[in-house]
Amino acid sequence: MEVKKAAMAGTLESSDAQVTVEPGNGTIELSIESSVIHQFGKQIKATILETLGRLDVTSAKVKVVDKGALDCTLKARVECAVYRSNDITENLPWGGVIK
Amino acid sequence: MINAVGRDIPEEVLKATGKKVFEGAYAYDNYEYTKAAPTVHAVCDPKRSKLVENIHDALVKCGIKDGMTISFHHHFREGDYIVNMVMEEIHNMGIKGITICASSLGKAHDPIVPMIEDGTIVGIQSSGVRGKIGEAISTGKLRDLAIMRSHGGRVRAIESGEVHIDIAFIGAPTCDEYGNMKANGGKSDCGVLSYAVVDAEYADKVVAITDCLVPFPNVPASISMVHVDYVCVVDAIGNPAKIATGAAKPTTDVRKIMMADYCTQFVINTPYFKEGFSYQTGVGGASIASTISLGKIMEERGIHMGLGLGGITTPMCNLLAKGLIRTLVDTQDFDMGAIESIKTNPNHIEITASEYANPFNKGAYVNKLDFVILASLEVDTNFNCNVVVGSDGMITGAQGGHPDTAAGAKCTIVIAPLLQGRIPAICTNVTTVTTPGETVDVVITDYGIAINPRRQDLIECMKDVKLPFKTIEELRDMAYSMVGEPDPVQFGDRVVGIIEARDGTIIDVVREIKEYEFKD
Amino acid sequence: MSHPNKKRLRRSMMFLNCQKPGLIKDPYIYKPDSIMLDLEDAVAENQKDAARYSLYHALQEIDYRGVERVVRINGLDTPHWKEDIRVCVAGGADTIRIAKTETAQDVHIVEEHVLAAEKEFGRPEGSTLLMAALESCKGVLNALEVCKSSDRLIGIALSGGDYTKDLQTVITGTGVELQGARQHMIIAARAAGVQCWDTVFTNLDAMDVFEEEVKMIKMMGFDGKSLVNPRQIDVVHKVFTPTQKEIIFAEKVVKEIDEKKALGIGVFTVDGKMIDIAFYDGAKRTIDLAKASGVYEGDL
Questions:
Q1: pLDDT for res B520
Q2: Cβ proximity of C273 and C224 under 8 Å
Q3: Which of B252, B255, B466 sits opposite C29 (nearest CB)?
Q4: What pLDDT does A53 receive?
Q5: Mean pLDDT, to the nearest integer, of B329-357?
Q6: Which is nearest to B106 in space by CA: B82, B135, B128, B81?
Q7: Cα separation of B138 and B156, whole Å?
Q8: pTM of the model
Q9: What pLDDT, on the 0 to 100 scale, is given for residue B379?
Q10: What average pLDDT score do residues C76-88 get?
Q11: Which site in B102, B395, C28, C137 is 20 to 30 Å from C94, CA atoms measured?
């Protein structure tokens, strides 16, 4: 999926994460800021990249500001930001690329 | 060298400090030593006044010079003005190389950080640090190793001569012109002066600083004039609103109330819960809630606490007022209710930090505890606790009386929610060991209760008790299954601080914080 | 055959905002019978999409440890409800709470979409249960037809805030404005053989008033109550805990009827009093409540 415009999802509340996506130039440029970076940096990065991969996003600037979100929340925020960048809110592929 | 809690203490740290590694919580029982003594100046001429003009005058008269060790107490908590006031003057005088030996330091002392950076302060010895001082130490800005000691460990270090205090600055809510200090009756009452007593007894020079000079004699004094060289009157020693807050409202957080109920149920099902039992608890929401629920059961069953110990809050004073506690023995007051109680209730008494927790005196109050209820940032599967280093690797807490009471009490209970955000409180290895697991008996979380397998007796007596018992490994696995298994904090190589066990051995070290790196 | 969970115990049904990760990650710790993950009022209009992703992953990945997972979807007068239904079914929600239900037709529309979604996402047909929130005078008056509208329907819940607006009054705290709706709804629910839940109580500073209200609705026959805070759960469960006397009587009724029926005897006596078969279900319910409350130690 293409990231067509800048879009954001999530908040900076505890246990949440704020994900911003912007159109990229052929690669994934990922920046991660996290209150739990030492313990979970590796897992956060893996989850974000996996989720982008499932959505077939190959070109985007992705910024994650994490406040201790669980993986399920990280996925939800990435998916939401990517679909928002495409203005899609209906007939989503639940259980398909969203899983 | 690997110590008794499995931590590798670098040789160079042992060499630099001359300390030994931790060998076990009671390894120094019956230890023989000679106490240190201060070098003092007699005051026999009755015409000589102890009053000085200001802090500068006091520093000059005390002979402040580069490389000295000076001390402070933390009874004014986050309302303290004394540390900053004295350090600012020392800084203005261009003195360098000072070591601060405080009973604790907090966010109120953030302003001294530039003095760490410019070499005015080179050493910090404290129960703990928070805020910007913690960051400064963790980022390697302090020249010497920071030393974190428990309240009892600090008294031991001073009395045994491990640390020698050149000048003690003691903030006193009231004081007379000859140096008799009291914790109450002034503008900035703090209830007790327990932590400062050892400073008065063992420092070469003692300066009393007050904002309320009262007529001689100010008796009964918490700290007597016989120890005091100078008396300095200033406008304000602290911010009363931050020294003593109003009593915390009982928590409405159901999770905390649930853990408190588990705690109370555990306590009343042990053989120690009987007429005359002794008990200490902390200031956290769950601790206070458990004090309140325990109080109800004491009342129902007509069981009285013989001794209530430690840092005191209003709920404990309420039990005292109801006649449910025989004696409340106090080393620190956390709120207005506690301060009011010690002023008015004859069964609420002040003791020194040495009496409270010093492992090298001939028996401290903590040794007589049946129960202590504690909190912890992390607990590992060996029941080791970390109360000093945060999940980001930064020094951000204090040992306080944690290791002292845990070692002393027959039943040490730690309450911690299983998860703080994504950070599991129960883990395989704590970031830093501050209290050894051999002294921790029970861990209570919102997901279940684990009893230390060393305590088969407690496991036995809980056999028919309806509480959600789990093994500590089960609790850890539950946490990891929800949030994933955490990686250890990435530290740099340099050791910036040591965690001293109560007996002066090294239980763990704290290393410099390092920017997180993704390793592919 | 009706769904095995249709009549499960639902004393406490706690609302949670789907848009708040901190709230939905482990509410089971408070031991409610059901949680109601809210896509409707608690979620801002511009976050409806975001809440669905959170809901999907929560349903899929969080082990709610046996707590029923109800999802409140947006009303049929909004653009959101169709996608809400798709995500609920795809994620495997146990039950969908239909907001602002007024007629049996409303339930039929939702049912149709749920069935389509069950087919789309390969879920067993009929596995998703429904409950209807009645939030208007029309809805309350149509309670009976709503209760009878679908095999999937587990019951009806009063939504007092919107209902009192429609009545042109407010929540007074006396309960007088809700009397008619409560009475009418519980009668309709029982007539149709489904469950019935009372409206939320939002003043968390008045726990004693809350407790009185719970006692009252229990006496009226309600199965439970919609809740807004975990503090309320324990109060509800305590009120719904049967007394030892009730438990002992229920146990005797169940045992007597089981025994005599097996012997082909149709006359039952407990403590010297004649009872009839109509006592049986109630006695069973009492035992179930006692078990759920942790106070039953018998062998039934």
A1: 64
A2: no
A3: B255
A4: 98
A5: 97
A6: B128
A7: 26
A8: 0.94
A9: 98
A10: 98
A11: C137
- As a whole number of angstroms, the distance between CA C231 and CA C234 comes to 7
pLDDT in tens, B155-212: 999 999 999 999 999 999 999 999 999 999 999 999 999 999 999 999 999 999 999 9
Domain extents in chain A: 7-85
Rounded Cα–Cα distance for residues C98 and B205 (Å): 77
> Looking at residues B137-153, what average pLDDT do you find?
97
> Is the CA virtual torsion A27, A32, A38, A44 positive or negative?
negative
How large is the average pLDDT for residues C221-229?
Answer: 97
Cα separation, B353 vs C30, in Å, equals 40
Position C279 pLDDT exceeds 70: yes
What percent of chain A has a predicted confidence (pLDDT) above 70?
100
Measured N-to-C along each axis, helices C48-61 and C81-91 cross at an angle, to the nearest 10 degrees, of 10
Pairwise CB contact (< 8 Å): A72 & C62: yes
Neighbours of B65 (CB within 10 A): 13
Helix (H), strand (E), coil (C) string for B185-253: CCCCCCCCCHHHHHHHHHCCEEEEEECCECCCCCCCCCECHHHCCEEEECCCCECHHHHCECCCCCCCC
Q: Is B446 on the interface with C (CB under 8 A)?
A: yes
Confidence of residue B471 (pLDDT cuts 50, 70, 90): very high
pLDDT band, residue B145 (cuts 50/70/90): very high
DSSP for C232-293, written as a single string: HHHHHHHHTSPPHHHHHHHHHHHHHHHHHHHTT---EEETTEEE-TTHHHHHHHHHHHHHHT
Give the model confidence (pLDDT) of B499-520 as tens digits: 999 999 999 999 999 999 998 6
State whether CATH 3.40.1000.10 applies to domain A7-85: no
Intra-chain end-to-end CA distance of chain A, in Å: 16
By C-alpha distance, the chain B residue nearest C204 is B252
Name residue B374's beta-bridge partners: B414
- Sorted by where each begins, the domain ranges of chain C are 12-239, 244-292
Mean pLDDT of A45-49: 98
Nearest CA in chain B to C61: B482
- pLDDT tens-digit series, residues C131-177: 999 999 999 999 999 999 999 999 999 999 999 999 999 999 889 99
What does the alpha-carbon distance between residue A97 and residue A75 come to, in Å, rounded to a whole number?
11
Chains that touch C (3 or more CB pairs under 8 A): A, B
B-C contacts (CB, under 8 Å): 18
Residues C176-203, mean pLDDT to the nearest whole number:
97
User: Smallest CA–CA separation between C62 and chain A, in Å?
Assistant: 8
Assigned CATH topology for domain C12-239: TIM Barrel (3.20.20)
Q: What is the 3-state secondary structure (H, E, C) of B2-27?
A: ECCCCCECCHHHHHHHCCCECCCCCC
The one-letter code for the residue type at B200 is: A
What is the least distance, in Å, from the CA of A45 to any CA of chain C? 18
> Are A70 and B483 an interchain contact pair (Cβ–Cβ within 8 Å)?
yes
Whether this model's ipTM surpasses 0.90 comes out as yes
Lookup result for tokens 């946490």: B479
Q: What is the DSSP letter of B398?
A: B
CA quadruple B62, B65, B68, B74: dihedral, nearest 10: 60
Taking the CA of residue C75 and the nearest CA in chain A, the distance in Å comes to 16
Q: Which residues contact B60 (CB under 8 A, 6 or more apart)?
A: none
Annotate C110-136 with b (16+ C-beta within 10 A) or e (fewer): bbebbbebbeebebeeeebbbbbbbbb
Q: What does the angle CA C299 – CA C293 – CA C254 come to, to the nearest 5 degrees?
A: 35
Alpha-carbon torsion angle C244, C245, C251, C253, nearest 10: -160
B355 Cβ under 8 Å from any chain C Cβ: no
How many other CB atoms are there within 10 angstroms of residue C141's CB atom? 16
- The residues pairing with B312 across neighbouring beta strands, listed in sequence order, are B333
Q: What are chain B's domains? A: 47-243 (3.40.1080.10), 254-489 (3.40.1080.10)
Examine the pLDDT at B33 and tell me if it is beyond 60.
yes
Residues C128 and C154 sit within 8 Å (Cβ to Cβ): no
